[in-house]
């Protein structure tokens, strides 16, 4: 349908609706939503990226967990405009927000440098066929451009996992165990990218596969984090 295509094209170049609240806007976010971006600022836990009362490495949230990644960072709390932004990219087709809005925010949350490669958390083939894209890959491409690193599809989802929403931490870990594998050898310092950090189970499983395939160290970066 030509009309739909032209509207989509116009939306792409001249977004008219706020990705969060759908109000008319001159940019991807209206002014009110922009001012309400739930940005995660220091002090945070240097290990898991959770907002903290003071700078620390290891907090109540992550202290008893064994992560394969060195540290995790997130740009926004998974709440309000942050949650809407994830949903806009993932479910409402506003994929331009990944490159133009999410990636700069994520690059800004990153305090590590010198990554050899950026690897998105993969979607299982069945799910990516249905959705048509992998939101983690869109975010990884945007972030990679910002930090001048290359993107690699060194990970693949070897089996379909149940939706993590509503699962307890233990069930989440069991759900993703062995669900990802590396393709061939991996080398150097890897930045692993996903949309949301909840318990860290998915990122941990992916980081484990990357380390097992030869990565020196893995850092995790997400657009949002549950806090
Ligand atoms: Zn808005
Ligand atoms: Zn922590």
From TrEMBL:
Domain Phosphoribosyltransferase: 138-224
The species this protein was found in: Rubrobacter taiwanensis
Similarity remark: Belongs to the ComF/GntX family.
Top-level taxon of origin: Bacteria
UniProt name for this protein: ComF family protein
CDD domains for this protein: PRTases_typeI
Residue intervals of the Double zinc ribbon domain: 10-62
Pfam families for the chain: DZR_2 (PF18912), Pribosyltran (PF00156)
